[in-house]
Amino acid sequence: MKVDFSDRGFWIGSAYCVLAALAWAIIGPVSRVCFAEGMEPATVAFWRMAVSGFCFLAHALLRGGLHARGRDLASMVLFGAVNVSLVILSLQISIQKSGGAIAIILMFTAPAWVALFSRILFHEAINASKMTALALAMVGTSLVCLSGGSLGGEVSYLGIACGLLSGFTYAFQFLFFTWYKDRYSTQALFAMTFIPAAFVLSFFAKFEPVSMHAACALFVLSVVSTYVSYFWYGQSLRYLSPVQAAILGNLEPVVSTLLCWWLWNENFSLIGWVGCALVIGSVLLLAMKRS
Questions:
Q1: Which of 229, 159, 197, 267 shows the shortest CA–CA distance to 45?
Q2: Rounded Cα gap, residues 214 and 192, in angstroms
Q3: Are the CB atoms for 21 and 251 separated by under 8 Å?
Q4: How many Å apart are CA 101 and CA 163, to the nearest integer?
């Protein structure tokens, strides 16, 4: 993969991609602000999906509407209600129970699951580099789980299980959105999946007054770390290949882990840090070898 570093478009796209990765990286630390203010994971997940979903809906309507009908609309609504709600809720539970650092690392195993699903569903060949990446991901994930999390103290098996679940279910979104991306705009796709997810999560959320700190944290999660970040990522793909964007996206778990360590004193044991490095390395290897 050749990169022309003199190309202005490359640097514009890289800037957008880095901004998106940084916006995603603060999900863990900012979510912990909500939990510290007494909010429950389901409530945080609901507001994140509801606010960002309506932002995408307004964006889609301003750009010409949704234009989804029949079977496509039904599949998007069902996917949002089941998959998207499960991804967001399990991630928030993992952040609360085991820490933001471990939750993001476990969610970042999604590309490894995508490689495995691509083999099963699309018969995509698994060469030596992919096998190496999958092996690194599995070993790294095992080490991260054995470390017990990044909060210290008693191990939360629920938190670890939810982190693994978020990565597993998030992998399906790569396949789902790839299937529809050429027929519908990014904002339309997210509007038609995020709003049904918010509807499902509303049954588990608690609608109570929140502090100013919690309200500000929810705004950052919903608008900056979800709506704006996906817009930035979409803009980056106008200038970069998906491979280049995927490589730059590796900033997300690195920055998120460092922020959780700095702001909330989260830390891994030695085997946890080794596991983090293996997971990130596996995703980087998959991205660099992706055709």
A1: 197
A2: 27
A3: yes
A4: 10
Is 3 contained in some domain? no
C-alpha dist (Å) from residue 218 to 30, 65, 206: 8, 27, 14
Please report whether residue 225 resides in a domain.
yes
Structure tokens at 199: 């509807």
| Number of domains into which the chain is organized | 1
pLDDT digits (tens, 9 = 90+) for 65-77: 777 778 899 999 9
Read off the pTM: 0.88
What pLDDT, on a 0 to 100 scale, did the predictor assign at position 291?
Answer: 45
Within a domain: 1: no
- Contact at 8 Å (CB) between 275 and 140? yes
Query: Measured between alpha carbons, how far is 167 from 21 in angstroms, rounded to an integer?
Result: 17
Q: Can you tell me the distance from the alpha carbon of 25 to that of 38, in angstroms, rounded to the nearest whole number? A: 22
CA distance 132 to 143: 16
Residue 6 confidence class, pLDDT cut points 50, 70, 90: low
Q: What pLDDT, in 10s, does the model give residues 237-264? A: 778 766 677 677 778 888 999 999 999 9
Q: Which two tokens stand for residue 104?
A: 């993001």
With contact defined as beta carbons under 8 Å apart, do 85 and 197 qualify?
Answer: yes
CB 225 within 8 A of CB 45: no
Q: Are 228 and 8 in contact, with CB atoms under 8 Å apart?
A: no
Low-confidence winner among 105-109, 238-242, 276-280 (lowest mean pLDDT) = 238-242
Q: Which domain holds residue 201?
A: 8-289
